[in-house]
Design goal:
98 residues, alpha/beta, five-stranded parallel β-sheet, 33% helix, globular
Length: 98
């Protein structure tokens, strides 16, 4: 998978090799996910609300919780996601005990 903050990079990737999976990392909210057809995956902690996840899934795309390193970030995940990115897998597993 090729992931980027820059959507135009994903468009170029898809133009060269359409079968490659792409992920769009966002630091800001997205109102209309259908505006980004070159993105197969969306990654951002703020997107992890049921309504947003449902919108993304309805387009046949996936959602990644990025970056989940602490209880605050974990609590921000308000809906089931397809995967998570963390810098501390061991620490994240320990959060399960809390």
């Amino acid at each position: 998978m090729i992931t980027s903050f820059c959507y135009s990079v994903l468009e170029k990737v898809k133009a060269i090799e359409p079968s490659l999976k792409t992920g769009y990392i966002r630091s800001k909210d997205i109102e209309d996910f259908s505006q980004y057809p070159a993105a197969d995956h969306y990654a951002h902690i703020e997107l992890i609300q049921k309504e947003r996840v449902d919108q993304i899934h309805s387009l046949g795309k996936k959602v990644t919780a990025w970056t989940v390193n602490d209880l605050y970030s974990l609590a921000s995940v308000k809906a089931p996601v397809d995967d998570m990115i963390t810098d501390d897998p061991g620490g994240l597993l320990k959060l399960d005990d809390q």
